[in-house]
């Protein structure tokens, strides 16, 4: 097993590229079935979801659009509890089906903020897709429509997700050792 060190933290391989591909395919199929009569607008949440968004859209065979929103709440491996809006929603969402695309939902603080922003628009439907969910941590009432992989309360990185800015380029997911 190839360990990885970033600063003083040790990470070990956790979820293979193949498992990630399977999860992305399944999510894509589920979304395509639900959206067969519409053109969804995927709304990726930067930075973490860029790689997931890319693979999701490449796998999505029907007409669709993409845009991004940028929020941040994490410093190192801890949620600060405060979510900052760095890039807002610029599109006209009137009558659109918007699918929020998250790499991971942990406390749900980020999601709550995004959904609050979307509710102020005239979007027809707001749906949520996440590659990872920590069900034991998530404590909001917002329904998550599409879930890739559920994980315990551990800190992961790779496939878009970082530790202190590093590790986003890894094509598989690692977990913080002994977390
Ligand atoms: O459910 P929560 O506890 O809010 O955590 C989930 C959020 O944390 C990460 O983003 P982060 O704030 O680290 O910004 P980044 O995507 O730029 O890394 C991740 O991409 C989610 O958006
Ligand atoms: N990189 C990373 N960011 C997160 N944001 C919320 N949970 C996590 C996590 O486990 N890893």
CATH topology: Rossmann fold
Number of H- or I-type helical stretches: 3
Strand content: 35-45%
Topology order in helix (H) and strand (E) letters = EEHEHEEEHEEEE
Distance between the termini: 17 Å
Question: Taking Cα atoms only, what radius of gyration do you get, to the nearest Å?
Answer: 16 Å
Flag low-confidence runs. Answer: none
CATH structural class: Alpha Beta
Organism: Wenyingzhuangia marina
Keywords: Cytoplasm, Glycosyltransferase, Magnesium, Metal-binding, Nucleotide-binding, Purine salvage, Transferase
Pathway: Purine metabolism; IMP biosynthesis via salvage pathway; IMP from hypoxanthine: step 1/1
Cofactor: Mg(2+)
Provide a descriptive summary of the structure in words.
It comes from Wenyingzhuangia marina. Keywords: Cytoplasm, Glycosyltransferase, Magnesium, Metal-binding, Nucleotide-binding, Purine salvage, Transferase. It catalyses: IMP + diphosphate = hypoxanthine + 5-phospho-alpha-D-ribose 1-diphosphate; GMP + diphosphate = guanine + 5-phospho-alpha-D-ribose 1-diphosphate. The longest helix has 18 residues, at 17-34. Strand 3, helix 2 (50-59) and strand 4 (65-75) form a beta-alpha-beta unit. Helix content is 22%, strand content 37%. A six-stranded mixed beta sheet has the order 5-4-3-6-7-8, sandwiched between helices. It has a single domain (4-173), classed as Rossmann fold. With 179 residues, the protein is an alpha/beta fold. The model has no long low-confidence stretch (mean pLDDT 93). It has helices at residues 17-34, 50-59, 109-119; strands at residues 4-6, 9-15, 41-46, 65-75, 78-87, 97-105, 125-133, 146-150, 156-157, 173-176.
């Amino acid at each position: 097993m190839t360990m990885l060190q970033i600063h003083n933290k040790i990470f070990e391989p956790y979820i293979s590229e193949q498992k990630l591909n399977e999860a992305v395919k399944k999510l894509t199929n589920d979304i395509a079935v639900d959206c067969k009569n519409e053109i969804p607008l995927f709304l990726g949440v930067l930075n973490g979801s860029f790689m997931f968004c890319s693979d999701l859209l490449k796998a999505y065979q029907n007409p669709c659009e993409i845009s991004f929103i940028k929020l941040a709440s994490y410093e190192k491996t801890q949620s600060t509890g405060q979510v900052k809006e760095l890039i807002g929603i610029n599109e006209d969402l009137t009558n659109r089906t918007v699918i929020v695309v998250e790499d991971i939902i942990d406390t749900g603080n980020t999601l709550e903020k995004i959904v609050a922003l979307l509710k102020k628009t005239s979007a027809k439907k707001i749906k949520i897709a996440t590659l990872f969910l920590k069900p034991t941590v998530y404590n909001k009432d917002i329904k998550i429509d599409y879930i890739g992989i559920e994980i315990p309360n551990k800190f992961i990185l790779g496939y878009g997700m970082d530790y202190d800015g590093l590790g986003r380029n890894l094509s598989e997911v690692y977990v913080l050792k002994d977390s």
